[in-house]
Structure formats: C-alpha cells, structure tokens
Design a protein that fits this description.
This protein has about 130 residues and is of the alpha/beta class. It contains four helices and eight strands; from the N terminus they run E-H-E-E-E-E-E-H-E-H-E-H. It comes from Corynebacterium doosanense CAU 212 = DSM 45436.
C-alpha cells in the first residue's frame, strides 16, 4: 500500500493535488497530511485543511513519497519545508512536486532526476503512485 505525505500550506492550489488524491484512494493507498505545525490552513479554493503531523515527523512516518503541491506562497518562507525536502532526499524518500518548482529550486533539488515533477495532474498522479 502506498503511503503519501501531502504538504499542506495556505494558498495550496487544489487542482495540483486533487487527481492524486482520487487515484490514491482508488488504489487503496493512505494519505498523511503534514504541515509546518498543526494549525488549519486554507487552500487557494478556500478548503480548510488540518495537518495530522508536523514536517519534523515526515521521516518517522514511514511514507513512500513526500508530495508538495503548487502554492502562491513559495517565494519566501517555508524554510522548514526546504530543509525537510533536503533531508528526505538524503534518506532516499522520493519527493514529488507539481506547480512547486520554486521551492524545489530553493531546496537545491530542481535538477535532481529522482524528484518527480509534471505539469499534467493525471500523469503526475500515475508517476507518484508508481514511485510509492
């Protein structure tokens, strides 16, 4: 069973991760919502999302992939996410990002061939599920 951690942040773009969530559910996978703390955030579409775990626990959660959705807020901030992205890659956990190239660049992972990126949500979902 694939276990995916989805990073939750204010202004996360709903359409970048929606297809993945549907495909994960159909495949019988498990979703873990992680955030920079456990406070409820709001997606760009206004959906309230409450993380179940803090970013600091990602490596202990036994996830197969850390997914970073697109968001309007990656220009600055998110330092804990940047550090976590580096850490999970060093531990061999795949990172997947859709619409989040800027934060990947900030983490030094923009050219990492092991990082899963795609602009097409259906293709992205399929690649993430194969990696998990």
């Amino acid at each position: 069973m694939t276990r995916i951690a989805l990073y939750c942040t204010d202004t996360m773009i709903d359409s970048t991760y929606a297809h993945l969530l549907v495909d994960l559910a159909r495949a019988g996978g498990e979703l873990v919502l992680v955030g920079d703390g456990l406070d409820t955030v709001r997606s760009l579409g206004g959906l309230p999302v409450t993380p179940e775990a803090d970013l600091g626990a990602v490596t202990a959660l036994g996830v197969d992939v850390l997914v970073v959705p697109g968001a309007d807020s990656y220009v600055r901030g998110h330092e804990r996410l940047v550090r976590t992205l580096r850490e999970v890659r060093l531990r061999g956990i795949p990172v997947a990002a859709i619409g989040a190239a800027l934060v990947l660049e900030r983490a030094g992972l923009g050219e990492d061939p092991a990082v899963i990126t795609d602009d097409d949500p259906a293709r992205f979902a399929a690649r993430v599920l194969r990696a998990g």
